[in-house]
């Protein structure tokens, strides 16, 4: 034991004081633990504490009832509760033999100190019944159960030559052959099909197995395992639940599965396009190419096969987002579309003429999407194009290039009560067609030479632009000097005025001849032969003004000698 390992034989009793001191009184503890009793190295005794043993307190093992009877007389200590001697290393010295000695006393051959129920050291393959397949996962007590309640586990004398020794016959004697002829220990449900087929031909029964039924396990139909018990098989519903929740019970066959499905597989269904033609909704056009799940959304047993189809919107989203929901169309898609395809629409130009906006002239040639444009991102399956307009004026589609200059004119109403809009000046034949505009109705009627002047000559666009549409039409000048340069170099501009009054001498019919009245507006009335004298004969004074030569009319001499000299010619008498 411990003392034999730590005390040298040559020292005899001389080595005891190293651990036990004397002369310290009767109650002195004579044992000196190194380093303490709790941390004592038990392996030095020759028996290491492992597994569960390491967790026990000392007095759980070092107790009087654990000391061997033959050793008690050899122990000198009167109080055996204080003794650490007399213990044996065999398991049965502390633990009861649950096997009753039938398996010997070497417990460590099967068990360990970590867990009593785990027997990693036991090899069942060395017995007369090696464990295979599912038997390897069965707990020991399932087979080695006591012969009577409360009794000891049975480890020997078990019958194992037949499956029936442990298992009840689920077939109630239907088969004379032993279980192993069809089953094995891997799994009861793993039937040796080839063996069964060689002994039993299901095609000779009233229900030959075809298609998917061939792969169905026997117990799926013969649930009780009694193969002699007759089964109903006239209808699919005898074995299978109604996967459609009674949606086809109104049919003459009460929803018999075989009218749409075969034993080759639940999918695909044998209910095709031809069968659908006999329903209340024959599939035509693009609908004929739609997969079943496109209308009958798969939801398992909740899949609906009786669906509403009176209106297109029962299945399809409103492609125009409610624009045609009101009367007279009421979201009837077939008014403009067909089953052959969503595009092209059947809404023609001829039908457009019956709308609130008949197409005339250039509008007839405009593509649909030029007016009915997308108004932003659309919901999947719909269009954001606008087809219903609250406002039917030109500016609902076209930008006003005149920036509201003619707002008052455009607000005038037509015979039908609608605003005239751009058509107060333009026509739908061509934007440049201004035959409807009457300049005489403005504050500046065009008369004389003004009729031949191009619009852009008076209504000039800003920043030297060429498009006439950007011109400020209301800002056009209404006086001659607003458009024409003063060719007289300012000699006729009244004092304090910014420009001369051209209209006092000229008019819009023609610049020449002038309407100037020499008799009333000057101090030199033209009389006699002076009436026939050309203006340039008297007014010949030309000067340079701003780089241009200008004829000056003032001052002009009024005395005869100033023009004719001191000896004017005598007037000739007529012959």
What do you see in this structure?
Helices cover about 10% and strands about 0% of the residues. The chain is low in regular secondary structure and about 575 residues long. It has a two-stranded antiparallel sheet. A hairpin with a 2-residue loop joins strand 1 and strand 2. The longest helix has 7 residues. The protein is elongated.
Keyword list:
16 helices; 2% strand; 2 strands
Quick gist of this model?
The protein has 575 residues and is low in regular secondary structure.
What percent of residues adopt helix (DSSP H or I)?
10-25%
> What is the helix tally?
16
Strand content: under 5%
Give the SSE order as H and E letters.
HHHHHHHHHHHHHHHEEH
Q: Name the shape in a single word.
A: elongated
Rounded average pLDDT: 87
Radius of gyration: 62 Å
Low-confidence stretches: none
Spatial order of strands in the largest sheet: 1-2
């Amino acid at each position: 034991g411990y003392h034999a390992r730590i005390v040298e034989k040559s020292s005899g009793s001389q080595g005891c004081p190293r651990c036990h001191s004397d002369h310290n009184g009767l109650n002195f503890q004579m044992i000196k633990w190194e380093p303490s009793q709790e941390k004592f190295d038990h392996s030095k005794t020759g028996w290491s504490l492992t597994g569960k043993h390491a967790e026990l307190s000392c007095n759980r093992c070092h107790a009087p009832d654990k000391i061997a009877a033959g050793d008690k007389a050899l122990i000198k200590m009167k109080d055996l509760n204080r003794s650490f001697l007399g213990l044996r290393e065999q398991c049965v010295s502390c633990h009861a033999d649950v096997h009753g000695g039938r398996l010997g006393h070497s417990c460590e051959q099967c068990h360990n100190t970590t867990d009593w129920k785990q027997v990693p050291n036991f090899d069942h393959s060395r017995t007369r019944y090696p464990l295979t397949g599912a038997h390897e996962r069965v707990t020991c007590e399932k087979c080695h159960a006591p012969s009577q309640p409360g009794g000891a586990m049975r480890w020997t004398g078990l019958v194992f030559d037949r499956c029936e020794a442990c298992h009840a016959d689920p077939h109630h004697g239907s088969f004379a052959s032993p279980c192993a002829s069809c089953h094995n220990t891997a799994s009861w449900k793993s039937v040796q099909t080839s063996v069964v087929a060689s002994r039993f031909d299901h095609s000779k029964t009233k229900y030959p197995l075809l298609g998917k039924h061939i792969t169905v396990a026997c117990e799926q139909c013969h649930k009780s395992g009694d193969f002699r018990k007759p089964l109903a098989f006239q209808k699919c519903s005898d074995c299978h639940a109604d996967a459609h929740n009674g949606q086809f019970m109104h049919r003459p066959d009460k929803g018999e599965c075989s009218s749409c499905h075969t034993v080759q597989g639940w999918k695909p269904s044998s209910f095709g396009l031809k069968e659908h033609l006999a329903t209340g909704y024959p599939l035509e056009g693009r609908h004929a190419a739609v997969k079943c799940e496109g209308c009958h959304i798969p939801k398992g047993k909740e899949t609906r096969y009786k669906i509403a189809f009176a209106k297109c919107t029962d299945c399809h989203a409103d492609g125009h987002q409610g624009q045609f929901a009101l009367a007279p169309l009421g979201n009837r898609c077939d008014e403009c579309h067909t089953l052959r395809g969503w595009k092209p629409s059947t809404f023609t130009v001829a039908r457009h003429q019956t709308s609130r906006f008949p197409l005339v002239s250039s509008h007839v040639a405009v593509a649909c999407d030029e007016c009915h444009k997308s108004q932003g991102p659309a919901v999947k399956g719909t269009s954001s194009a606008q087809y219903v307009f609250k406002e039917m004026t030109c500016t609902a589609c076209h930008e006003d290039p005149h920036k509201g200059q003619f707002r008052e004119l455009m607000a005038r109403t037509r015979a039908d009560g609608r605003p005239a809009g751009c058509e107060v000046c333009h026509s739908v034949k061509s934007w440049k067609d201004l035959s409807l505009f009457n300049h005489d109705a403005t504050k500046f009627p065009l008369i004389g030479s003004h009729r031949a002047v191009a619009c852009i000559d008076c209504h000039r666009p800003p920043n030297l632009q060429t498009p006439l549409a950007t011109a400020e039409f209301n800002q056009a000048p209404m006086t001659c000097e607003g458009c024409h340069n003063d060719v007289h170099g300012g000699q006729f501009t009244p004092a304090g005025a910014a420009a001369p009054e051209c209209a006092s001498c000229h008019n819009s019919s023609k610049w020449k001849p002038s309407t100037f009245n020499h008799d009333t507006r000057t101090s030199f009335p033209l009389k006699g032969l002076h009436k026939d004298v050309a203006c340039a004969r008297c007014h010949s004074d030309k000067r340079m003004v701003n780089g241009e030569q200008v004829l000056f009319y003032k001052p002009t001499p009024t005395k005869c000698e100033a023009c004719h000299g001191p000896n004017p010619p005598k007037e000739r008498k007529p012959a």
